[in-house]
Amino acid sequence: MRRPLGSGRSGNGGRLRRGTAVSAAVLLAATTAAACGGRDDGDDGGTATGACEGQQTTGITDSSLKLGGIYPLSGPASAYGAIPKGIKAYFDYVNKEKGGVDGRQVEFVVRDDGYQPPKAVEEARRLVEQEQVFALFQTLGTPSTTATWDYTSQRKVPQIFVATGASKWGTDDKHPWTIGWQPNYVSEARVYAQHLKQEKPKAKVAVLFQNDDFGKDLLDGFKKAIEGSEIKIVQEESYEVTDPSVEAQMRDLAGSGADVFLNVTTPKFGSQALAADAKITDWNPLHILNNVAASVTVLEPVGFKNVQGVVSSTYYKDPNDPQWADDAEMKLYRDKMKQYSPGADPNVPYHAFGWAVATSFHKTLEAAECKTREGLRDSMRNLKDVEVPMLLPGVKMSTGPDDGFPIEAMQMMKFEGERWTLTGEVIDTRKVFGPLGD
Questions:
Q1: Are the CB atoms for 294 and 307 separated by under 8 Å?
Q2: What's this model's pTM, rounded to 2 decimal places?
Q3: Burial code of 176-198, b = ≥16 C-beta within 10 A, e = fewer?
């Protein structure tokens, strides 16, 4: 392998600090497991030979691969239910036309947790113990992933490319089996801070955030990124995922005198905040909408005329952006979505997200020296400038012993007309702010 196993920097009480990604004891344990770990009782045979002998091959054979995904197909975050459609279309395409992923036909089993952590644990157990999946590929949401990663760590099951940007997936040294994919919320916050430093260096910011690890992670990252500048947060309001609406919080924020509104919400509440902002005629701040709520499916119910000038950030190609009309990967994506998921609209960005993360998994498994659970764990933490065609030019996947974050570069975008338009250049937060935790 190119580099030894690592898992990013360790965290302490939500604060990020510089340090070795995995402690010596954890590294030794992981190395020992890779050398002589036993297979699960439910092992169906596999491909471990030579140096890979004895590693876990549950869910994978020479010709097949079984993955499990957990998404909120129902409940307050059900808009994310579009993601597995893009993933399945990609796997169906490579299964039927490319011989599968690394020569293996992929079965992708999707479970619904309704965005409820206890349900996510129940589904994770069902996928691992009953379905006997090789890995959990995508567990959506910070609360659900937090609820399940102790279990996957204990069972030594890869929990790869979870659909949440919490920074702890790359800073915790006790869960080497779990890793994120999308830019973490601290890196995303850094992008917004850098944008304001350039465009509104004396901004007064009002913040609406989800009162959980997701919302607090991005908000804390933003606060740290504006330290030493003249940008000030003048008011904060939180909401619970069980709240019926955020209209009351929006009215309070409108009286803050802020000229920037940082909207840290999931899709349902993102739409509500956008609609409330449009109704408040005497408040016209620069509206920054966090990436996880930036799909056109969130903006369209509000009315495109009411969301003009809203800004956000992205790292993958938007199927609604005409600049990608002749892009080879976008053409392939559109063609195969119509062929393998005819009921799904290829213009929905969450479908493109799913396609991109499935491609990322494909490349990660191919790079694994051992086609085992241990081999996948090692490969996902030893990526080096991996190009994924659906990512923006200049955005690549890299991880290593001191870096557990595959993607840390993003580009700002502004909503104009009926679509997002990219603005400025790709901001690589590693280069602008230094490695996360410095």
A1: no
A2: 0.83
A3: bbbbbbbbbbbbbbbbbbbbbbe
pLDDT band at residue 47, thresholds of 50, 70 and 90?
low
Asked whether the beta carbons of 86 and 330 are under 8 A apart, the reply is no
- 319, part of any domain: no
Confidence of residue 30 (pLDDT cuts 50, 70, 90): very low
Q: Nearest 5°: phi and psi at 263?
A: -105, 100
Cβ atoms of 208 and 253 closer than 8 Å: yes
Instruction: Summarize the confidence of residues 411-417 as an average pLDDT.
Output: 97
> For residue range 205-259, what is the model confidence (pLDDT) as tens digits?
999 999 998 999 999 999 999 999 999 999 999 999 999 999 999 999 999 999 9
Q: What angle do CA 195, 198, 200 make, to 5 degrees?
A: 85
CATH code of 358's domain: 3.40.50.2300
**Cβ(112)–Cβ(73) under 8 Å?**
yes
Cα–Cα distance, 179 to 437 (Å, whole number): 17
Of the candidates 219, 213, 222, 217, the residue with the CA atom closest to the CA atom of residue 241 = 213
Q: Which of 168-172, 193-197, 329-333, 375-379 has the lowest mean pLDDT?
A: 168-172
* 165 and 48 in a common domain: yes
Q: Does residue 67 sit within a domain?
A: yes
18 and 147 part of one domain: yes
Q: How high is the mean pLDDT of the chain?
A: 90
Cα gap 15→37, rounded to integer Å = 34
Please name the residue that has the structure tokens 């190395």: 31
Range of the domain at 263: 186-314+412-433
Helical residues (DSSP H) of 80-158, grouped into ranges = 83-97, 117-125, 142-155
Claim to verify: residue 102 and residue 28 sit in the same structural domain: yes
Is 5 inside any structural domain? no
Query: Could you tell me which residues come within 8 angstroms of residue 402 by beta carbon, excluding any fewer than 6 positions away?
Result: 6, 8, 9, 20, 21, 435
99 shares a domain with 29: yes
How is residue 99 written in tokens? Answer: 């011989």
pLDDT recorded at residue 437? 54
Number of H helices, E strands in the chain: 13, 15
Query: Token digits for 398?
Result: 């890299």
Which residue from 8, 14, 43, 42 is spatially nearest to 26, judged by alpha carbons?
Answer: 8
My answer on whether 24 and 168 are in the same domain is yes
Report pLDDT digits (tens) over 48-91: 568 899 999 999 999 999 999 999 999 989 999 999 999 999 99
Domain tally, the chain: 2
